[in-house]
Design goal:
There is one protein chain. The protein has 452 residues and is of the alpha/beta class. The chain has 2 domains: 179 residues, Aspartate Aminotransferase, domain 1; 231 residues, Aspartate Aminotransferase, domain 2, CATH 3.40.640.10. Helices cover 37% and strands 14% of the residues. It has a 7-stranded mixed β-sheet with strand order 4-12-11-10-9-5-6, sandwiched between helices. Helix 10 crosses helix 11. The structure holds pyridoxal-5'-phosphate.
Length: 452
């Protein structure tokens, strides 16, 4: 097990730290079986098996403290904000705490964090605001690799504002973007570059920082879709050189919500569509209508859960990490340890499937820096049938389709059912990976006769 030499003292809730222990001491990440014990969904049985959830890229399971935080808010503090009584003040506090938690996750400032129903809604809303500044002939760059939540809101401005869309192509053989083509897409009329940091369909990581720097030097703003990155990598918005970044707490063990980070000055200056009486300062400018405060409470709990996994390998996020400096360091430690753990499982899965004739794997192979999300097809079998049989025969829940990365699916030459996707999450263990390999082996031609 690798250990963490951390450089700050554990402050805030002292009960989080083992006696006489500071974060200068080595801090292991909690073992997977202990992490698993916090997820009630893992006790579900399907057929003969406990369910193995590989559908994390579509939405992860939640640890028990997430719905507990949401229920606590609803039972004890449920109100609307900005009024002169205690539950209203508590609601404002819950909302502020959620901004602080997300700011710790993204290494940002709390006042730059906007919550909304999901990333797609927030991105459409932002495209509307940015579109108000755009004129016919202005250009937006999107990519062929992205989820269409980071394509279609920008494409909508083609029709609405006469904007021209330019597209960075994919190299289908490698599952990566053709980065050499990027500079030629930039020009004096480029207003926005919309990049995905991690592919939810095939796991490709795109190094957005150099692209973002180039785009900003050309005078464009940069939007980063970090929905698939946030569960798997430490995000530091300052290092990405972007202006906007979006992610979704329900992909990292929280409730169904979306989060948008905006660089501070943009928050105040963008001409955002809003109702006249709604606050015109700070992140609330972007939060249309009454926000989901219970979802914000759950989002805080999700971030605290991740930080707690690194606290001492045993606290498992039961206690909130109220001190921002402690929580940020714990999140550093969490992701440092998570990356090799998830990579090892991805490699195990990849190698198991790659050995089977008739199984095609998409995206970068293990060994390259990639998200632990693997998509595949089995010759002669529809992805829907493969997914259904893995569920019925192995209790393994894998999603199938194009995962809204519709252009990518077309460029990969996939049929209407797309591919089957296995997403590794913090609760995935090696036995579950082996069950998927075993299941695909039975389904694929090599052992077709065994299962009939
Ligand atoms: C990479 C990526 N971007 C955007 C989205 C859309 O997120 P949301 O469901 O929060 O709108 C998803 C959802 O699967 C995604 O995986």
């Amino acid at each position: 097990m690798r250990l963490f030499p951390l450089c700050i003292k554990c402050r805030g809730n002292e009960t989080d730290a083992p006696e006489n222990k500071t974060l200068e001491d080595p801090m292991p990440l909690a073992p997977t079986d202990q992490i698993r014990s916090r997820f009630p969904a893992l006790r579900r049985i399907h057929g003969r098996h406990p369910v193995a959830y590989f559908d994390g890229p579509g939405g992860t399971q939640v640890p028990e403290q997430v719905p507990a935080a949401m229920a606590h808010y609803l039972f004890h503090s449920n109100a609307n904000a900005h009024w002169a009584f205690s539950t209203s003040a508590e609601t404002e506090r819950v909302r502020q705490q959620a901004r602080e938690a997300m700011a710790d996750l993204l290494c940002a400032r709390a006042e730059e964090i906007v919550f909304g129903p999901n990333m797609t809604t927030l991105t459409y809303q932002l495209s509307r605001a940015l579109g108000r500044e755009m004129a016919p002939g202005d250009q937006i760059v999107v990519t062929e690799l992205d989820h269409h939540a980071n394509v279609d809101p920008w494409k909508a401005l083609e029709e609405e504002r006469g904007v021209t869309i330019r597209t960075l192509p994919l190299i289908p053989e490698t599952g990566t973007l053709d980065l050499e083509r990027f500079p030629e897409l930039l020009g004096p009329r480029t207003r926005l570059v919309a990049l995905g940091a991690a592919s939810n369909a095939i796991g490709t990581l795109t190094d957005v920082a150099p692209l973002a720097r180039m785009a900003r030097e050309a005078g464009a703003r940069v939007f980063v879709d970090a929905v698939h990155l946030a569960p798997h990598r430490r995000i530091r918005v300052g290092e990405l050189h972007c202006d906007f970044l979006a992610c979704s707490p329900y992909k990292f063990y929280g409730p169904h919500m979306g989060v948008l980070w905006l660089r501070g000055d943009l928050l105040e200056n963008l001409d955002v569509p809003k109702v006249e009486s709604a606050p015109n300062q700070g992140p609330e400018r972007f939060e249309l209508g009454t926000v989901n405060a219970e979802g914000m409470a759950g989002s805080t709990a999700a971030v605290d859960f991740l930080a707690g996994l690194a606290a001492d390998g045993g606290s498992l996020g039961r206690e909130p990490h109220a001190d921002p400096s402690a929580r940020r360091a714990l999140l550093d430690a969490f992701f440092t340890e998570l990356v090799p753990r998830e990579a090892a499982l991805l490699e195990r899965l990849w190698n198991g499937l790659a050995a089977m004739p008739g199984v095609r794997l998409y995206g970068p192979p293990p060994g390259q820096d990639r998200a632990p999300t693997l998509s595949f097809t089995v010759d002669g079998k529809s992805p829907r049938d493969v997914s259904s049989r893995l569920a019925e025969e192995q209790g393994a829940f894998l999603s199938h389709g194009d995962f809204y990365a519709a252009t990518l699916a077309r460029r990969l030459g996939l049929g209407p059912d797309g591919m089957v996707r296995a997403g590794i999450s913090v609760y995935t263990n090696a036995q579950e990976v082996d069950r998927v390999v075993e299941g695909v082996d039975i389904i694929s031609s090599r052992r077709a006769g065994v299962s009939g």
